[in-house]
Amino acid sequence: MQRPDPEEVAESVFAALAEPTRRSILSTLAARGPATATDLAELLPISRQAIAKHLDLLADAGLVLAEPGERRRIRYRVNAAPMAIAQSYLAALARDWDSKLARLRQVLEGPD
Amino acid sequence: MPIPDRIERTLDLAQPPERVWEALTSAEGLGGWFGNRATVDLRPGGTASIEWDNEQGTRATLTIAVVEPPVRFAWTWGIQGLPDSDPRRTYVEFTLTPSGGGTRLTVVESGFAQVPDDLLGTAYQGNVEGWAEELGELADYLDAAA
To answer: Which of A3, A80, A104 sits opposite B33 (nearest CB)?
Structure first.
C-alpha cells in the first residue's frame, strides 16, 4: 500500500466531517454497524440518491469501506484508520503544554 | 496549513537546574505539576505512571528514554485519545540549560504526524471487524455454557 500523507488523510477526514449529511452517515455507521444506502435512507431524513452520492465520496476518501452484502447489495462500514490519523493531529493541538508548564513554574515558585 | 508534528516551548525559570530537574523527574514533582499522583522508576527503560483526578480517571504510562541529570530527561508515551493498541508514541524531551542563576527549560514533543506502515493495513481494520467477531464468540461461549 502506498504510504499515505498524514496531512492529506486528516484533511479528507475534516472535510467529510464539515458536511452535516456526511456526519450523520458516519455517525449512523459508527453507532449501528455496516449498512447499505437503502438502510441509511430509512434511518436518516435524506433521499437514498443523496446518501449514495455521499457514500461514494466517503469511499473515495477511504473513510468508509464498501463490502458486498446479501443479495449483492453493497454494505458500507466505517474505516477507522483515517480517523486515527486525524485524531493524532487533534492530539497535537490538545496536548496543552502551556497550562502544564505554567503549573510547573507555579510549583517551583512555591507558596507565597 | 500543516498541523505541527512537533511542539516546542521554552521557558525561563528562576530556580537552578538541580531544582528544576527534581520537579521534572521525581514522583513528587511529576505528581505536583504534571498530574495529581505519580510513580517513577527513574532510569532509561523504566516507566513512570501519572494519574489525574478528573472524572475519567485519566492515567498515562511513560517509558523513560533518557536520564542525564541535570541536563536532559526524555520519555515516550501514547497519543491521547487513541486506543492502547495504537503503535504510535510521541517523544518528549526536556533540556535544562543554566541561565544566570536560573534555568532555561526547553520541552519538545514530536511524532504526532507519524504514520506507521501498518496503520492503514490490517491492524486498524481488525479493530473495527473485531466487534462482530467478538460478539459471535460471546454467543458461542454462552451457547456452550447453556
So the answer is: A104
**CA distance linking residue B119 with residue B115, whole number of Å:** 7
B80, A100: Cβ pair inside 8 Å? no
What percentage of chain B's residues is helix, strand, coil (to nearest 5)?
30, 35, 35
Closest CA to B42 of B69, B71, B77: B69
Q: Are B5 and A93 in contact (CB under 8 A)?
A: no
pLDDT band at A6 (very low <50, low <70, confident <90, very high): confident
Q: Do residues A66 and A76 make contact, with C-beta atoms less than 8 angstroms apart? A: yes
Residue B66's DSSP bridge partners are: B74
Q: Measured between beta carbons, which residues in chain A are less than 8 angstroms from residue B93?
A: none
Which tens digits make up the pLDDT trace of A44-57? Answer: 999 999 999 999 99
Q: Which residues of A60-91 are buried (b: 16+ CB within 10 A; e: fewer)?
A: ebbbbbeeeeeeeeebbbbbbbbbbbbbbbbb
